[in-house]
Amino acid sequence: MNVRGGAYITFVDSDDWLDSNYLEVLHSKIVEYDTDFVIGAYKQFSMSDNCYYMHVWDNDYYEKQWLSHELLSQLPSLELNDYSYTVSWGKLFKSSLFDHIKFNDQRRFGEDFECSFKLYLAMTSCLYIHKALYNYRVHSESMVGKVRTERQLMDDVEIRLGRIPFLIGRGIDPTPYIEGMKNFLQWRLDTKSDVGEGESNALCMYREVLRNL
């Protein structure tokens, strides 16, 4: 990040790939709308059965421009739809956004999730295009949504709790975020065997936070 030199920046995970017109389409839209960044959709390719899994179709195409306050107010429901608003890949950014916004390299989980929220706070506007130009490879080591360690569990809840003061400071109702966090914490407790953590410190913290929300 510190050696970037161009006017725009995009992120691609090492095991994923882009459609040939990915940059052309996103760049044309960031220029047309003079927006801070463009969010594209994606399709999934499963390594286990060599099949594409599609949830975005060309005949459903639309564009939606967001102002910061508007997007932050709708973000909890948008994050339930798919990964488009939670990850850093699949987007084209004005490089200047990252003059003051950094990924937290101390995180072991959720650094995309955390950085995306910072970008939504800092932006003037962004554009979502309902077109799948990014190819997300799904395999046993895919990290999106996967929590395996105590540290990752702690990072996950710390990032979610850390949003609340910023929302209050912006005058945005945090209730949808809090309700979403309650559901998330309960789900994590209900599925704790999936991460093999038993009665870990992180899960004890989850219960404590859940009791007090």
Can you characterise this structure?
The chain has six helices and seven strands; from the N terminus they run ββαβββαβαβααα. Strands 1, 2, 3, 4, 5, 6 and 7 form a seven-stranded mixed sheet that branches. The chain has 213 residues and is α+β, with helices and mostly antiparallel strands. Helix 3 (111-122) runs parallel beside helix 4 (150-169). It starts with 7 loop residues before the first strand and ends with a helix.
What is this structure, in a nutshell?
It is built from six helices and seven strands, in the order E-E-H-E-E-E-H-E-H-E-H-H-H.
Number of helical segments with 4 or more residues: 6
Mean pLDDT: 90
Strand percentage lies at 15-25%
What overall geometry do the principal axes of the alpha carbons give?
Answer: globular
Helix content: 40-55%
Biggest sheet architecture: 7 strands, mixed
Number of strands: 7
List keywords for this structure.
213 residues, alpha+beta, seven-stranded mixed sheet, 7 strands, 40% helix
Q: How is the secondary structure organized here?
A:
Layout: E1 8-10, E2 17-18, H1 22-33, E3 37-46, E4 51-53, E5 63-67, H2 68-81, E6 91-94, H3 111-122, E7 125-138, H4 150-169, H5 175-190, H6 201-212
Parallel strand pairs: 3-7
Antiparallel strand pairs: 1-6, 2-7, 3-4, 3-6, 5-7
